[in-house]
Specification:
By secondary structure, this protein is an all-alpha fold. 82% of the residues lie in helices and 0% in strands. The protein starts with a helix and ends with a helix.
């Protein structure tokens, strides 16, 4: 369990680092070109990793038979990246990252409620604490 907790922590660090690099790319190339560079490089890397690990096998039948909603992951990924790049122009990195966390927690709770039928008031209180912290940080930093 500790290994997976450390991996999740590493994911968070990699995510923020990736966001900052992508933000610089959009500053240099524009929002859409920066997003395109991100996804082209990611696709090439994924292709190389699949080949290097001997897990490369494309089952074209599976692609055709897959329910269409499964392709929404890529759609939401592009939308999320574009929204992030636009948002970083207007907010501090800390605020943007914290709001992303609040959004992720909120959708996580919605999935718990709608898909897994599992909800606790404690989860909702946790999100509210984080949201109040963001609001207080914004108010305190505008008073400086």
């Amino acid at each position: 369990m500790l290994l997976f907790m450390l991996l999740a922590l590493l994911l968070g660090c990699a995510s923020v680092t990736s966001n900052m690099i992508n933000f610089r790319a959009t500053k240099a190339l524009g929002t859409w070109n920066g997003t395109l560079v991100n996804y082209v490089v990611a696709s090439i890397l994924a292709f190389l990793l699949l080949n290097l690990t001997n897990h490369f096998h494309v089952d074209w039948n599976a692609f055709v038979k897959a329910p269409p909603y499964l392709y929404l992951g890529g759609v939401f990924g592009v939308i999320a990246l574009v929204i992030l790049m636009v948002s970083l122009n207007k907010m501090k990195v800390f605020q943007c990252t914290t709001l992303i966390l609040v959004g992720q927690l909120t959708v996580g709770i919605l999935f718990d409620i709608l898909v897994y039928r599992n909800f606790t008031l404690l989860k909702l209180i946790g999100i509210l604490f984080v949201a109040v912290g963001i609001i207080l940080d914004k108010k305190l930093s505008t008073n400086d």
